[in-house]
Amino acid sequence: DVKVTQSSRYLVKRTGEKVFLECVQDMDHENMFWYRQDPGLGLRLIYFSYDVKMKEKGDIPEGYSVSREKKERFSLILESASTNQTSMYLCASTPPPGTGGEKLFFGSGTQLSVL
Amino acid sequence: AQSVTQLGSHVSVSEGALVLLRCNYSSSVPPYLFWYVQYPNQGLQLLLKYTSAATLVKGINGFEAEFKKSETSFHLTKPSAHMSDAAEYFCAVSEWGGGADGLTFGKGTHLIIQP
């Protein structure tokens, strides 16, 4: 089975801190995604990447950046955390279209609280 | 641009009763459609998907969904609810199979099962 691992299940940070959320997948998937999940708003796409060192903005990229130095690892960075970034963050990956790429595999999520 | 509307943020049914979760989509091209389920404290997992083959799609755990182009709908049903079905359900759409640009999710429907 595909495994998508997010390094922390719960994280508490202070306003203004730089925050790194790490995600690793073990199936050599091309595409990786970061979503945030908020009650009543569903999942919203922050950034995605379809190759090493490539990144694309999603629907709500403001206040975030990403890094993909290796194919298996996709990091989400909050340059200066703010309270409105308190949320559940979900990482996902998928192989290219035509190879089962329509199915996203999700990690368990990181619940980030910014105080 | 694609979008998804889930009618009802909370749906409550009795154990053994029919489950009906509603989803309407908007897409400029024939879409790929998905239902994902999220159990408490877990990531999302795929229930079923529509990728332009049969309009009635069967998924895991006895769920099925019917693609109706004329109504732009993809409602999720299960004939008889079980207590273990209590979870958050998300409908999602993609115009490119989700491989390169991810999915657009609805806001979610919380399914409550009454004993």
Question: What's the topology here?
Answer:
The complex is a heterodimer of chains A (115) and B (115).
Chain A: E1 4-6, E2 10-13, E3 19-25, E4 31-38, E5 42-49, E6 56-57, E7 64-70, E8 73-78, E9 87-94, E10 105-106, E11 110-114
Parallel strand pairs in A: 2-11
Antiparallel strand pairs in A: 1-3, 3-8, 4-5, 4-9, 5-6, 7-8, 9-10, 9-11
Chain B: E1 3-7, E2 10-14, E3 19-26, E4 32-38, E5 44-50, E6 56-58, E7 64-68, E8 73-78, E9 87-94, E10 104-105, E11 109-114
Parallel strand pairs in B: 2-11
Antiparallel strand pairs in B: 1-3, 3-8, 4-5, 4-9, 6-7, 7-8, 9-10, 9-11
Description:
The complex is a heterodimer of chains A (115) and B (115). By secondary structure, chain A is mainly β. Helices cover 0% and strands 52% of the residues of chain A. In chain A, strands 2, 4, 5, 6, 9, 10 and 11 form a seven-stranded mixed β-sheet that branches. In chain A, a hairpin with a 6-residue loop joins strand 5 and strand 6 (56-57). The model of chain A has no long low-confidence stretch (mean pLDDT 91). The chains are: A mainly beta (115), B mainly beta (115). The A-B interface holds A 4, 30-31, 33, 35, 40-45, 48, 50, 56, 58, 90, 92, 94-98, 101-104, 106-109 and B 6, 9, 32, 34, 36, 41-46, 49, 51, 90, 94, 96-108.
Features:
heterodimer; A: 115 residues; mainly beta; four-stranded antiparallel beta sheet; B: 115 residues; six-stranded mixed beta sheet
Shape of chain A: globular
Main sheet of chain B, how many strands, which sense, barrel?
Answer: 6 strands, mixed
C-alpha geometry of chain B: globular
- Could you report the average pLDDT of chain A, rounded to the nearest whole number? 91
- SSE class of chain A: mainly beta
Helix fraction of chain A, binned, reads under 10%
Order of helices and strands of chain A: EEEEEEEEEEE
- Rg of chain A to the nearest angstrom? 13 Å
Structural class of chain B: mainly beta
Q: What is the share of helical residues of chain B? A: under 10%
Number of strands of chain B: 11
Largest interface: A-B, 30 and 28 residues
Low-confidence parts of chain A: none
Strand content of chain B: over 45%
Query: How many beta-strand runs of chain A?
Result: 11
